[in-house]
Amino acid sequence: MNKALSIFIGVLMSTTAFAQSDPNLGIIPAPVSITRANGNFVLDKTTILINQSIDGAKINDLLNAFIVTKAGFALREAKVAQPNQKSILLTSSGADKLPAEGYTIKVTPNQVVITGSGAGLFYAVQSVMQMMPAKVADKIPIPAVTINDYPRFSYRGTMLDVSRHFFPISFIKKYIDQLAYYKINTFHWHLTDDQGWRLEIKKYPKLTTVGAVRNGSIIGHYPGTGNYLTEVKGFYTQDEAKEIVKYAAERYITVIPEIELPGHASAAIAAYPALSAFPDRDTFVNEKTAWAGSRKGKQVQQTWGVFDDIFVPSENTFTVLNDILDEVIAIFPSKYIHIGGDEAPKTYWKESPFCQALMKEKGLKDEHELQSYFIQRIEKHVNGKGRSIIGWDEILEGGLAPNATVMSWRGEDGGIAAAQQNHDVIMTPGSMGLYIDHQQSDSPDEPVTIGGLAPYQKIYAYDPIPKVLTADQRKYIKGVQANMWTEYIKTTNKVENHAFPRLMALSEIAWSPVDRKDLKNFAEDRLPVHLARLDKMGVNFWVPTPIGQSEKVLNGGDFTIDLKVPVTGGKIYYSLDSSRPSENAFLYTSPIKVTVPKGEKRALRTIVIAPSGKRSVTTETILNNGAPEVKAEAKK
Ligand code: ACM
């Protein structure tokens, strides 16, 4: 290469996919270890692809499809390299000695050796794709490096609620593609709830003809200002669900179906009222919202929350639920079947003569024990089919079913208690940022959400292993999950807005060792590149506010505000006159110098606009030089 070209490549490389100084080479989640060496492997048209792995041609296709989009050419596949021929080698030799899902990548000037099998090789290729900078004159310079990598947790999950709002199969696939890219290996599909039953069950067709249709939804935040009398409906056929299972499995993602019981069951009860503890009671008997539609009979719920109606623990109910679970088990090959178990009010069971007689007969001292009886009956059936149940932490109440795994959502206490009882645990505490239906900032620009504040930094700060557990008990913490409930999420765009960048933070706490966590590197070096990629791919995301901007009041007279753009290729615009910034405001190009006269204050307001035009919320910093009012000004 002549000197001019090498300088040219050097200049361009500094603006390519990731900063060469980034110790993690742009990879999310951060690998266990990265050791840089001198030099680069320069991928070009002469590079060949050799696959000696046990994983067949699919992995070649994955890598080559990426190289085509990146470089504009595909690598020629060959069995061996000629002397001095540059190659990318995929191999499973030695992979049996790697940790589960682990891989290694070794880049030298002449060869890239990618070692792994199954999920490990797949993840290695995700990492290679992430560390490849943009091409320069038809060449891609990959830094010489050795990477050893494997996950901290075997369960790295995310839950999507499709009951409150329904999202089509095409979107579920698009979402799964992103999960795979971030090495998330579990998709928990919340298929049933009070507001809609979303899976075809052949033996009980009314579950979808009746249970998948809601005649309206509240307007605005609960309790709402009225009712959109717009039908919300939709369900997945069994063939579609199988298609998702297959699609996910090809990306090393397990789909765990959730069938809610004994509460959150209004949609099933609307379809089959005999499943209720009070079949003749109208659904809206206890409903406090004024706008509800028809008040007669059983209805699929049109508002959000927790409802008294609940499955009756009768033999008929167990027969129906077992039949349903048999069909579910035939569709989903996952070890776990999620049976819900959360927020099941005991009011109807207390009032029901049948339930009280059953408790007496079975020697159950309260309704919590009746719930435990209910869950244990279900567990026995599911275990009989070779599967295990997983449930929300309320399944601890009244006694945990013998083989159950607990999903700890009401803080960490349920997970701690379960681990202390030697039960497996998935940590997903809402209080620690894992509820990604919560708001991402305090700005009034945020869309309506259920409430709560869970910026991605909060997820990033979370360690799923509670310190109070002993070394032995810690082994029961199998992983971590983020949950997206969709009461207030009606569109696929909004699902994506809530998901990203929070799922990237989840991926890092689920995969990377604690001592590899580095929020500054994550937020400032890697996220901007990853968000720009989503932007280009047509995946929506929450545009972060400018890096370095304080939301607290800054005191002084002379200020220099140094900001960084949080999305590569994006722009920051700002105002100093209290107007709401847009692309008509000042473009940020270098640190902003502001002098505030004594006794006065100024409001610096910013907005970030990504290359596609997506916008951040407005962020305000008050610059105060001794003015009496120091409270943040009312935002417009
Ligand atoms: C839950 O959020 N009700 C599990």
TrEMBL record:
Residues 153-513 form the Glycoside hydrolase family 20 catalytic domain. The keyword Hydrolase applies. InterPro entries: Beta_hexosaminidase_sua/sub (IPR025705), Fn3_assoc_repeat (IPR026876), GH (IPR017853), Glyco_hydro_20_cat (IPR015883), Hex-like_dom2 (IPR029018), HEX_bac_N (IPR015882). This is beta-N-acetylhexosaminidase. One of its GO terms (molecular function) is beta-N-acetylhexosaminidase activity. The active site is at 343 (proton donor). GO terms for biological process: carbohydrate metabolic process; glycosaminoglycan metabolic process. It is an enzyme of class 3 (hydrolase). Keywords: Glycosidase, Hydrolase, Signal. The keyword Hydrolase applies. The lineage of its organism: Bacteria, Pseudomonadati, Bacteroidota, Sphingobacteriia, Sphingobacteriales. PANTHER family: BETA-HEXOSAMINIDASE, BETA-N-ACETYLHEXOSAMINIDASE.
